[in-house]
Specification:
about 350 residues, alpha+beta, Nucleotidyltransferase, domain 5, 7-stranded mixed sheet, two-stranded antiparallel ribbon
Length: about 350
């Protein structure tokens, strides 16, 4: 796991709690991951699960599928509830909750899954490697399945996740949805082919990184190649969409992604983003525009398995050379900003 700010490494949280409050920590009975805390509240059965343990926590060794050396060294291993599979029914809904919610007593409750891994699961069950999934939202999370073996650079927000099958998955992330809200707002203008063409022709670019402190260019200060006040709203939308797409392509390169690229979430409906992603990577891009999130679909896979269909459709438009040239120019500009 990369060293993340604001307590995002669960292992760091536990270490801090043990050092700062040793008397209280000595009274800990059971440690649960977040999703499985709710499974426990629903059933009374305590469990942990590998996608949650393996998500930037420093608690899990993804190669050996065991707890990390830190867990062993700190004496935490006996405190962790048993590790169960994400698609395992761990118990039934407690009678008091069944009465309060008017749901059936004993309704099966599954162990549960980490959110980004939920987006990945439908594709693990229905696609052949190599491929990658780009899960878009506040965070844009990229996961590579069956890609090239590369050495990850934790300084650029890359890490190993663990998928629902227990396998290690090279991953990268940046705050793409947050950047879009900061730069375009919550009510973006309509996309315009003319605005896209002007941005390409004039070379209007946003260089990394917004917001700072994360992603593949964490220390780079954002810079426009044009006075941004002179951009029309549609031009600004196009330039920001291109920027986010090229940030995605950079992350995919960092994790050795190969094969087709599946885009989930809000950015799947952004044609400028998808078109530039195809130009920058030179690989097939599929967009799932039927659902705003793959997370709920992945949760459904815990029950229905491969019977779930993702709805991702191949982006089949021809990509003009101007998009490829723009991508190459952006990549040259950013090579010196790492």
């Amino acid at each position: 796991s990369a060293r993340l700010p604001m307590g995002l490494n669960v292992g760091a949280q536990l270490f801090w709690q043990q050092r700062m409050f040793p008397r209280h920590f000595a009274e800990v009975a059971t440690i649960l991951t977040y999703a499985q805390y709710w499974s426990y509240r629903l059933t009374g059965v305590a469990a942990n699960e590998v996608t949650s343990l393996g998500c930037h926590t420093d608690l899990w060794n993804p190669r050996s599928a065991t707890f990390s050396t830190m867990v062993e060294a700190r004496g935490w291993t006996p405190l962790f509830a048993p590790v169960r599979k994400a698609d395992e029914v761990i118990g039934g809904l407690l009678p008091a909750l069944a009465e309060e919610t008017r749901l059936p007593d004993g309704l099966p409750v599954y162990c549960g899954i980490h959110d980004s891994n939920a987006s990945l699961l439908p594709h693990l069950l229905t696609r052949s490697a190599p491929f990658s999934v780009v899960s878009t939202g506040t965070w844009v999370v990229m996961m590579s399945v069956g890609g090239e073996l590369v050495e990850l650079d934790e300084r650029r927000d890359t890490l190993i996740n663990v998928n629902a099958l227990g396998d290690p998955v090279p991953s990268a992330r940046f705050m793409g949805g947050r950047a879009f809200s900061m730069l375009v707002g919550d009510n973006p203008p309509a996309a315009s082919a003319g605005a896209e063409a002007r941005v390409l022709a004039e070379g209007y670019m946003l260089l990394p990184s917004v917001p700072s402190g994360s992603g593949p260019f964490p220390s780079a200060e954002p810079r426009w190649t044009v006075n941004e006040d002179n951009l029309t709203p549609a031009e600004r939308l196009a330039a920001v969409s291109f920027h986010l797409s090229l940030m995605t392509a950079t992350c995919l390169d960092l994790i050795g992604a190969r094969g087709e690229i599946v885009v989930e979430g809000p950015f799947a409906a952004n044609s400028a983003y998808v078109r530039m992603l195809a130009a920058a990577t030179g690989r097939p891009v599929l967009a799932n525009c039927l659902s705003s999130t793959g997370t709920s679909l992945g949760a459904a896979c815990l029950v229905a398995g491969a019977a779930i269909r993702t709805g991702a459709e191949a982006f089949s438009e021809a990509v003009p050379r101007s998009y490829v040239d723009y991508a190459h120019k952006w990549q040259r500009f950013t090579a010196e900003r790492v």
